[in-house]
Structures are given as structure tokens and as C-alpha cells.
Amino acid sequence: MEIVVRQGDSLWNYSQLFKINLQLINDSNPSIQPKSLSVGQRIQIPGFVTQEYQIRNGDTLWSIAQSRNLPLETIYLVNPGINPNNLKINQIIKVPLRIKWRLVDGGQPYDYAKLINDITGLQAVYPFLQVPSIGNTVLGKNIPEILIGNGRKRVHYNGSFHANEWITTLIIMIFLNDYLLSLTNDNIIRGLSTSSFYDQTTLSIVPMVNPDGVDLVLHGPPKSEIWRNRVTEYNKGSTDFTGWKANIRGVDLNDQFPARWELEKSRNPNQPGPRDYGGEKPLSEPEVIAMADLTRKRDFARVLAFHTQGEVIYWGFENLEPPESMIFVKEFSRVSGYEPVKTIDSYAGYKDWFIQDWRRPGFTVELGHGINPLPLSQFDKIYQNTLGIFLAGLYL
Ligand SMILES: [Zn+2]
Fold first, then answer.
1. 163-184: pLDDT as tens digits
2. Would the pLDDT of 344 be above 90?
3. How remote is the CA of residue 210 from the centroid of ligand 1, in Å?
4. pLDDT tens-digit series, residues 285-311
5. Which residues contact 214 (CB under 8 A, 6 or more apart)?
6. What radius of gyration do the chain's Cα atoms show?
7. CA of 168 to the centre of ligand 1 (A)
8. Residues paired with 355 in a beta bridge
9. Catalytic residue IDs
10. pTM over cut 0.90
11. From ligand 1's centre to the CA of 245, what distance in Å?
């Protein structure tokens, strides 16, 4: 919601009037010098939108504010120049509305267009989110990163490295939405106040590493005949892409990292297909290059890569992980009931590479149980079981 600065206003006033943490207001207005506001400047207030309201007989500005649990002053702020003594029946005024509900819909298959639409919607209400692009997919889709918080501890979550595991994107986006609601309504989640997470942690989220693959699973081949023919051939002529994990070129993005890549390559398929083909060389695919570049640039303290399925958390790689990894995975397990597994016979994944090159905690969390793609009917159960992991990733 946008308001216009009046004589004597300060961001601190706005924070008090709207009961929104001052830091969130500062971060929603990055180009503003908080100590020197000028009259007429426009300021974003996060967590609110304005609604139109038609004056009825007997209304006063005071009664309207009262009915919405807002100070009267907030009505003046969104209606500059309004004369409270001269309200007219049917006159339209603006009223601030505090957003208390999710904007992300957890009940629908989650493709790239829905992701972009939701990010745009969240950014409009929560302008303190930053959404840089990390690069483009093979088909030219922009891969967004979402940044939230301004703490020194840098934490990274990602989803949908594997195309038919798109439910991970939806779980991550619902977590983000609940975190935002908790920050702007001062609500606790599982007994935890999240404002300290915001101050201490910068959370980087890449909710959909493989958008081309996700759209292939959900909508079938692209319109272009070249790609249609190519992916159908990689899929052995089948038009059923529900088993597809790779990117659009048939390369498995989680078999692409230089962490014993040759070993993984030697026993996996040697040509493009729905899954497990590691490419001709490590880091050949644009989605993987983008993730590697991001990881080098951001210097993450820890990373969690969300996959499906199995209800397990992989936390080791070649005994290169630091001692904290075991402490962290015990907490993740405690809050979720998921089983910690140190290593499996698998290499060249994102978390493997992160542990190998940084010697910091990296985890692959396998959400849910069943056959991929997991049905949306499992969404609530998965989210309830694993919400604690998303929170622990911030407070540990
Ligand atoms: Zn996976």
C-alpha cells in the first residue's frame, strides 16, 4: 500500500500507526533516506492494501477506522485532504486493509506461470522482498531468486531441481507466504517469533530451479515442433511425461555438479532422457550454471535442497561435511519425524558439491511418500510435517 508523506511524518510514525516493524518499512523503501523524508514522497507500507469504501448514512471516519481496528490517523493518511466534517452518502474513500490470509493457493498444480504470478502478487504486498534473476533456462525462462531478511546468516532453500517434484516449489512458496504473514501480523509460528529470523538471517530461495521441466510434466511438450520431437524421442515415444525429472534437454540437473561426477556418469544412462543422464560434462546446463554462480556469489552458510520423496534427509558427502551437519540434521529430524541418512550411493548433486567445495552444512530433504509426482492430496500432510524444518533452517 502506498501513502504520501505529510509535514512532520516519519517512518517511525507509520510503524506505530500500522503496527508494522520499522525494519520492514525501511526495507520496503530502499531508495528513501529514512531520516529526511520530504512532503509528497511516496512510501510503501508492507502487509496492507487499500480498499474502496462507500460512505453510508451514519458513518464517521472514526467509526470506519474503529470497525477495522485501525487508528483514525491511518484513514487520513490514505485519503489526503479529506474533510471529516463533510462526508457525503455514497462518497468513495480508501480504507487500509491488513492482509491476514495467504495469497499463494496450495490447492492447484504449480507451474511456472503460477509461480511468476504469485511472486508478483507477493512483491506488491510485501515490497521488502527482493527478486533478482539468477539466469535463464534452455527455453529462455527467467529463473527467479527471492531474498527475504537482512541478517548476516545467509541460508538457501531450493525446489524443483527435478521436474516431476514440482510440489516442492508449492511447499516452499506456502512457507514463504506464512513467513510473510507472520512478520507483518506479528504472529508466532509453532511458538516462534519470526521477527528475529528476519533480523538475523537473509534467506535466499530459488523455488523452481527447473521451470522448463516442470511445465513439461504439467502441460506436455513445448509448442515448438523441434522441441516436441526431441523430448518425445528422449521419452522413448511416450506422451506421458509424469516420470520426467530432467531439464528440457534431457539432462538431470542434480547429476551435473563436479562432485565425483565421473563416477555418477559411469553408471548412469549415457544419453539424454527423462532422468539420471548427467550431461557430457559437469555444469553444462544453464539452470545448473545459474545455481553454481549464485552459490559462489552469495556465500551461503547452509543450503537445503527440497526433493520428493521418501521422508528422509541426506546430510553427508564423502565425510567432508562439518560437525554441525549432524547437529542440524538431528534438529530437522526431531521437528519433522524424517529420518537422517548420512550418505547414499549417489554423487554429483547440488548438496554434494556444496559440502565438498565449502565444507558447510548441505542437505537434501526428500518430502513425502509415494510415487512422483506426489498428488496434491498430500500437500497438507507434507507441509505440517516439514514446516519445522523450514523454521529450523532459519533459527539454527
Ligand atoms: Zn529429486
1. 999 999 999 999 999 999 999 9
2. no
3. 11
4. 999 999 999 999 999 999 999 999 999
5. 110, 111, 112, 160, 163, 166, 169, 208
6. 24
7. 10
8. none
9. 347, 366
10. yes
11. 7
